């Protein structure tokens, strides 16, 4: 991703950000964008080789990688603690790590092992990130920004993938509660809800390459001439993380090209 032109203000200068699920896809694009806008970025993921590669390509003075399985609350706590120990602060948490359904789960034959797996990562993992980032910000008097990745599935129903839809609905509930509770501390909490975007996770889940996936989903948007890319989601995350959205909290920013209009 190209550096911002020199006459453009770096929107995250002096900020420290954690990005979970930062080794690829939306997380990688956001890590690069945040770093380009002056933030020091900690990438957290379980894809160690990919995460290290991304961090090294961004630069050791700007970006580092930490192994973290968000389903394990203790690992999330250590991630936050180590970030503060290394950089002295935490200003932004982008809780982006998540998984998709392993099968087309229907209500009438819902597999609870699959439901537990997706809830552990998408819901418990996001809750752990919000909890420990918020605690650190409150304790240090930081008026930070917490952004969570939701989905169009958070506001619609599905003909299948019931467990995934349930998990994304829960993220909106978490965001709305957290925004009310943390607002008195000056901490903003929002979500970004992408339409179907071609990432390694979605492409592998649907067993398609990026071009096939985009060709399948692009007609569902009423905005013609633009194909949704990960950098569009990164731009939305930057807006919510930066002072450009200083009076926005409790908001679900939908990035869908008019799909739900």
UniProtKB/TrEMBL annotation:
GO MF terms held by the record: oxidoreductase activity, acting on the CH-OH group of donors, NAD or NADP as acceptor
Keyword Cell cycle: no
Alphabetically ordered keywords of this record: NAD
InterPro entries attached to this UniProt entry: NAD(P)-bd_dom_sf, SDR_fam
Recorded superkingdom: Eukaryota
SUPFAM superfamilies reported for this sequence: NAD(P)-binding Rossmann-fold domains
Keyword Glycoprotein: no
TM region positions: none
Family recorded in the similarity comment: Belongs to the short-chain dehydrogenases/reductases (SDR) family.
Name by which UniProt lists this protein: (-)-isopiperitenol/(-)-carveol dehydrogenase, mitochondrial-like
Source organism per UniProt: Coffea arabica (Arabian coffee)
Organism lineage string: Eukaryota, Viridiplantae, Streptophyta, Embryophyta, Tracheophyta
UniProt gene name: LOC113731130
């Amino acid at each position: 991703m190209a550096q911002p032109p020199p006459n453009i203000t770096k929107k995250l200068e002096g900020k420290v950000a954690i990005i979970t699920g930062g080794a690829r896809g939306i997380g990688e694009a956001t890590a690069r964008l945040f770093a380009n806008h002056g933030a020091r970025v900690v990438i957290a993921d379980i894809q160690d080789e990919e995460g290290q590669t991304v961090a090294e390509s961004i630069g050791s003075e700007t970006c580092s990688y930490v192994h973290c399985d968000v389903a394990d609350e203790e690992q999330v706590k250590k991630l936050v603690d180590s970030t503060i120990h290394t950089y002295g602060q935490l200003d932004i948490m982008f809780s982006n790590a998540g998984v998709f359904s392993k099968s087309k789960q229907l209500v009438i034959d819902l597999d609870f092992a699959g439901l537990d797996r997706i809830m552990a990562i998408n819901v418990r993992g996001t809750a752990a990130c919000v909890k420990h980032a918020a605690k650190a910000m409150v304790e240090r008097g930081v008026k930070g920004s917490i952004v969570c990745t939701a989905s169009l599935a958070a506001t619609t129903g599905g003909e299948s993938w019931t467990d995934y839809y349930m998990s994304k609905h829960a993220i909106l509930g978490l965001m709305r509660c957290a925004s009310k509770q943390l607002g008195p501390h000056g901490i903003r909490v929002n979500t970004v809800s992408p339409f179907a975007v071609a990432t390694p996770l979605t492409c592998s889940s649907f067993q398609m390459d990026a071009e096939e996936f985009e060709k399948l989903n692009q007609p569902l948007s009423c905005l013609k001439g633009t194909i949704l890319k990960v950098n569009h989601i990164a731009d939305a995350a930057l807006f919510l993380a930066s002072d450009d959205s200083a009076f926005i909290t409790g908001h679900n920013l939908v990035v869908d090209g008019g799909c739900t209009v």
